[in-house]
TrEMBL record:
It comes from Natrialba asiatica (strain ATCC 700177 / DSM 12278 / JCM 9576 / FERM P-10747 / NBRC 102637 / 172P1). Keywords: Membrane, Transmembrane, Transmembrane helix. This is Uncharacterized protein. The chain crosses the membrane at residues 21-43, 49-69, 81-101, 107-128, 149-170, 182-203. It comes from the Archaea.
Amino acid sequence: MSVIRHPGVLGQRTRRRLVGLAAALTVAVVEALAVSLWFGLVITARTMTTAFVGLGILLCGSLLRIAIFETTITDSTPRLTLERVGTALTLTAGWVVWLLLAEFLGGVTGVLVATICLTGALTAQFCFECYVFHSVTPTPSSVTPVRSAAVLALGAAALLTTAWFVDWTISSPLAELDAGIIAIRIETIQLAAVVFGLCAFLAHQHRFQRLLEPDL
């Protein structure tokens, strides 16, 4: 009855939900591309050049992700400030430490420990972002960053698992031309990147839903 009496409430909730879904999808695409490209570069070519290029991609992705988050939550145009750069740097550092820790420990232990540590780091990162750009301290009633961080960390674990323990490729001829045969080639790391993107969408969709619709 309350919705019928106040139809604007339903429209406002629908708008917030659509905004949250669009923002989560955009952030997921940005994060999946940045993290997957960085990860693919550093595990395939161990050179200073690829390390710096990968860090640049990861940092740019972090800055863009945080800008989208701020725009969605505050409805303001983000500017490149020391606060925002520092937030992006902490996010970038979290991913780098995750990979270094996993490689230092190695094997299944490295994946498990790194995933747990990444969950903690992302939880702190999400709380920090919420405090900086939303001016509130997250509580169980307003936002649950641990769940979002855990889902995103599981996606990162999929990247590590496929890169270290799974080695197969799907390939099939697509068409035969005069110049040769066009074939489709799908590697496990590509599938893992898709899984990571899906996890990123679920994680950020939950964040935006709780922040944009705290009454749910």
